[in-house]
Amino acid sequence: MLAMRPDCERCGSELPAEASGAFICSFECTFCATCSEELDDTCPNCGGELMDRPTRAAKLHAKFPPSTKRKFTP
């Protein structure tokens, strides 16, 4: 199951699990649409391709909670 990280690792933008606009690589490195575009859809951590992250319906958050662990470090 995807961790659904709550923020962009590059700029810190909020990326709610129920909203579109997040991009991930196969290691679940997570970036917003703007940063993904600036990175030419290539993960700076592993070199993998950044793809659209699926959304998770808010009604499923209680049973399958998205991650609260933030990755952005200023």
In short:
This protein has 74 residues and is low in regular secondary structure. It has one helix spanning 33-38; strands spanning 22-24, 30-32, 51-52.
List the helices and strands and how they pair.
Blueprint lengths: L21 E3 L5 E3 H6 L12 E2 L22
Antiparallel strand pairs: 1-2, 1-3
Organism: Qipengyuania marisflavi
Pfam families: DUF1272
Protein name: DUF1272 domain-containing protein
List the domain count as a whole number. 1
Q: Main sheet, how many strands, which sense, barrel?
A: 3 strands, antiparallel
What does the radius of gyration come to? 12 Å
**Count of helix runs:** 1
- Binned, the helix content reads under 10%
Strand order of the largest sheet: 2-1-3
First-residue to last-residue Cα separation: 28 Å
**H/E element string?**
EEHE
Mean pLDDT: 95
Shape field: globular
**Class derived from helix and strand content:** little secondary structure
Residue windows where pLDDT falls under 50 for at least 5 positions: none
Q: DSSP strand (E) fraction?
A: 5-15%
General description of the model:
This protein has 74 residues and is low in regular secondary structure. It has one domain (1-54). It is built from 1 helix and 3 strands, in the order E-E-H-E. The protein has one helix at 33-38, and strands spanning 22-24, 30-32, 51-52. It has a 3-stranded antiparallel beta sheet.
